[in-house]
């Protein structure tokens, strides 16, 4: 019985990872009015969050890993974007899953998701500032070109940390909370299917 349950978890995780791999590419779109064009909005954290709630955060990590390994096949960032996405996705879905595991209520799911979204947004500033954007700068012809992409939207920004705090921090948080909202709308209906229980 235990072996059968584990096989089901592997199968569900593989399906959710495949969905996440599709969602990281489509629908994936820039929002030029509020973010530079090289940053896109996608829904790829949604399957990982559903997996974290239904199977546990360890399975959600696998979803995050597989979706980014698939994305590597068509990367335009030399793997930097995929590494960043993996780290931030895990920072989102792991706290959410751990808190929900301890408090299996709607309130537990909400506070877990909120904690995860805040963690993802805060960690995103640090990883982008110290790791991701310095590497991107080599691909985009220097850090000045990155800052100028933000200045097109808000000319008064004049440093990378200012850009990250004004733009990336709220954008990443909202991106996470959109997945939370969709999860709250559909989780009750699909949870029995994900867990292998009768509807």
Task: Describe what you observe in this structure.
- The protein has seven helices and two strands, in the order H-E-E-H-H-H-H-H-H.
- It is mostly helical and 199 residues long.
- The chain has a single domain, classed as Arp2/3 complex 21 kDa subunit ARPC3 (Orthogonal Bundle).
- It has a two-stranded antiparallel ribbon.
- The mean pLDDT is 93.
Considering the chains and any ligands shown, give keywords for the structure.
199 residues, mainly alpha, Arp2/3 complex 21 kDa subunit ARPC3
CATH C-level class: Mainly Alpha
Stretches where pLDDT is under 50 for at least 5 consecutive residues are none
Into which percent range does the helicity of residues fall? Answer: over 70%
Number of domains: 1
Q: Helices and strands, in N-to-C order?
A: HEEHHHHHH
Oligomeric composition of the shown chains: single chain
C-alpha Rg (nearest Å): 18 Å
Strand order of the largest sheet: 1-2
What is the annotated CATH architecture? Orthogonal Bundle
Q: What is the tally of beta strands?
A: 2
Brief rundown of the structure:
This protein is mainly α and 199 residues long. It has 7 helices and 2 strands, in the order αββαααααα. The longest helix is centred in the C-terminal third of the chain and has 36 residues, at 160-195.
Secondary structure layout:
Layout: H1 2-23, E1 28-30, E2 40-42, H2 45-54, H3 57-71, H4 80-102, H5 106-139, H6 143-151, H7 160-195
Antiparallel strand pairs: 1-2
Helix pairs in contact: 1-2, 1-3, 2-3, 2-4, 2-7, 3-4, 4-5, 5-6, 5-7
